[in-house]
Amino acid sequence: MSLIVAEIRKFTTVWTTAILTLVGVALAGAAGTFFVFESEFSGEFLGQDAQVAAIIDQVGGVAIIAMVVGLLSVTTEFRHQTIGRTFQLVPSRTRVVATKMLVGAVYGLVFFVLGVLPLFGALLVSGQELEFGELTRAALWQGPVGLALMSVFGVALGALLRSQVVAVALTLVHFFIVESLFVQFLPDVGRWLPFQALNALFTSEETTAMAGDMAPGALDPLVGLSVFVAYVLVAAAAAVVLMRTRDV
Questions:
Q1: What residue segments make up the domains of the chain, in order of their start?
Q2: Residue 216: its pLDDT value, please?
Q3: More exposed terminus of the chain, fewer Cβ within 10 Å: N or C?
Q4: Rounded to whole angstroms, how far apart are CA atoms 56 and 49?
């Protein structure tokens, strides 16, 4: 329990975490507000189930924030050379990595809640009678699950790469450039890459149709979730094994 408390304190006392979280919440809120009030882009907002779900899915559009925060939770310790002290206090490296992943998952859940609050505010301000049907209920569980997994994936990548600059640079290049190129030129391959697989949770046919931005060849949401879980498990297992065998 003391290790969990210590990791939570590391998350909550680092300004970078707070800044990135606020930026992510602001971006999600702006995107959701745009969906509600900009009818020329998404059509008139009528409070329909698919429209409400599409707005909630905007939190998933900033999932990269959760990944970067998880990544920084590990690489910051290597950057400031505090990881050695952590391993002295807790000799089990597996336990340290697992705890960081657990706290990262909790952060993903909290991030979703914070991101949804301004979206619900925009929905209430719209004045429309809101439908909370099957699509909305799906968005409300897919969102937190996706963000929690994204944060855990970030922790695993941070443990694998260690260098903060290299880890952030490689993951952002892969996210914004490599996968985009695959989606554009080799979509049958690109949709199976990790971030595209996760994105399937937030780009189902029903929700993206409201925005007119259907991703061609996107995986079924549950298939995408399964694929991304496989990526997370492989990365987490590799992170634990290498953390146990490599020198600090």
A1: 2-245
A2: 54
A3: N
A4: 11
Nearest-angstrom CA–CA distance, 42 and 169: 33
Where do runs of H (alpha helix) occur along the chain? 2-13, 15-37, 39-42, 49-56, 63-79, 83-89, 93-125, 134-161, 164-173, 179-185, 187-190, 194-199, 205-209, 221-245
Instruction: At 23, list the tokens.
Output: 């930026």
**CB 171 within 8 Å of CB 71:** yes
For residue 57, the 8-state DSSP code is G
Give the pTM: 0.91
pLDDT reported for residue 151: 97
Rounded CA separation 207/200 (Å): 11
Identify which of 12, 6, 116 has the alpha carbon closest to the alpha carbon of residue 60: 116
Which residues of the chain, if any, have pLDDT below 50?
Answer: 206-207, 210-215
